[in-house]
């Protein structure tokens, strides 16, 4: 029997999606690393470092696509200390800095993104993104009369979470089926979605279906905007790596009863898809509204990554924020 600690509990919640959304996953992982560090009793720094590496690996293996998770873990683990006390202080400070930096980034994205919204706009969103929501909420608080169309987002219905946020904020909301995206696009002025990862060529990895929304927007000449904190940019893609697309359990798509009825049926359940950069008009980050082509600059200059480091991290199996 595995003993449940605060860290394994967080890992379990990320796996089963009680904690979900790239930003929240990253912040919860940073908090769990801090709690783990503070709870370790040993005075032996080697033993402490080993236990922190174990904690890193447990959280790292929970979900593979959101780059914010390894970026948060690396940010917390960036410490050099000779004593356990110093290591604990550094880890706690790193975690706190990551969490407040992340919260401020979402707020800033809200402020920058709200400039893109005009009074009377109808905006479509897909899945549930706190960065996209920050834009809607800021625009609405500024007195803009907006209507947000939220997709249901099968199979986990994250659209219901979006609808719940919007309704609680008083923002006029319309819920549609995923299959109604193209039909509905003619009523839409702008699409705004979040990000699980942005690759070096500016392509977007987000909830499966995002690329179909982007295609429909492109066909209808509707602007497509992505809201992404800079820690969603993937340094390892600088080295030519692909972002792994999570394949989730078939039971999310079809219940066990029907699966038993069709025992030879194969089910594919990719949780994310890739929207090529040519369908993205703008990425709103906390450092400004940029074109997808600037992703290379964000990774290299803002995050400070060189090709050699990306290659090294690729071998270690991690991304990094700075
Ligand atoms: O695709 C999802 C969530 O997928 P899941 O529900 O599978 O985690 C969100 O659009 C991004 O994570 C961005 O969210 P945020 O802006 O909140 O970081």
Q: How would you describe the overall organization of this protein?
A:
It is globular and about 65 Å long. The chain has twelve helices and ten strands. It has helices at 6-15, 22-39, 45-60, 68-76, 84-114, 130-141, 158-168, 181-184, 210-219, 256-261, 295-302, 307-316, and strands spanning 122-125, 147-151, 173-176, 190-193, 197-198, 204-207, 223-227, 272-275, 282-285, 288-290. Helix 2 runs parallel beside helix 4, helix 2 packs antiparallel against helix 5 and helix 5 (84-114) crosses helix 6 (130-141). The protein has two domains: 6-106, translation initiation factor eif-2b, domain 1 (Four Helix Bundle (Hemerythrin (Met), subunit A), Up-down Bundle); 108-316, 3-Layer(aba) Sandwich (Rossmann fold), CATH 3.40.50. The chain has a seven-stranded mixed β-sheet with strand order 3-2-1-4-7-9-10, sandwiched between helices. It has a three-stranded antiparallel β-sheet with strand order 5-6-8, covered by helices on one side. With 322 residues, the chain is of the alpha/beta class. InterPro entries: IF-2B-related, IF_2B-like_C, Initiation_fac_2B_a/b/d, M1Pi_N, NagB/RpiA_transferase-like, R15Pi. One of its GO terms (molecular function) is ribose 1,5-bisphosphate isomerase activity.
């Amino acid at each position: 029997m595995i003993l449940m600690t605060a860290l394994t509990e967080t890992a379990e919640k990320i796996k089963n999606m009680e904690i979900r959304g790239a930003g929240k996953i990253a912040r919860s992982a940073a908090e769990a690393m801090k709690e783990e560090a503070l709870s370790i009793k040993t005075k032996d720094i080697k033993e402490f470092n080993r236990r922190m590496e174990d904690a890193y690996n447990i959280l790292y293996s929970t979900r593979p696509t959101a780059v914010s998770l390894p970026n948060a873990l690396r940010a917390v683990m960036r410490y050099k200390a000779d004593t356990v006390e110093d290591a604990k202080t550094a880890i706690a400070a790193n975690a706190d800095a990551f969490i407040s930096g992340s919260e401020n980034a979402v707020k800033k994205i809200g402020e920058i993104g709200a400039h893109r919204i005009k009074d009377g706009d109808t905006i479509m969103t897909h899945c549930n993104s706190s960065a996209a929501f920050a834009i809607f909420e800021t625009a609405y608080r500024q007195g803009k009369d907006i209507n947000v169309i939220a997709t249901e987002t099968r199979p986990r219905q994250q659209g219901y979470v979006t609808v719940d946020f919007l309704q609680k904020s008083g923002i006029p909301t319309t819920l549609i089926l995923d299959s109604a995206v193209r039909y509905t696009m003619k009523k839409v002025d702008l699409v705004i979605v979040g990000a699980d990862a942005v690759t070096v060529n500016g392509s977007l990895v987000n909830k499966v279906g995002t690329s179909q929304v982007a295609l429909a927007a492109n066909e209808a000449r509707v602007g497509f905007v992505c809201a992404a904190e800079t820690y969603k940019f993937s340094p390892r893609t600088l080295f030519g790596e692909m972002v792994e697309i999570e394949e989730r359990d078939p039971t999310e798509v079809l219940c066990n009863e029907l699966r038993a009825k069709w025992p030879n049926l194969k089910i594919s359940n990719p949780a994310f898809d890739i929207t090529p950069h040519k369908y993205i008009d703008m990425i709103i980050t906390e450092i400004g509204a940029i074109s997808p082509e600037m992703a290379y600059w964000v990774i290299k200059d803002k995050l400070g990554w060189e090709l050699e480091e990306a290659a090294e991290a690729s071998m270690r199996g991690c991304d990094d924020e700075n």
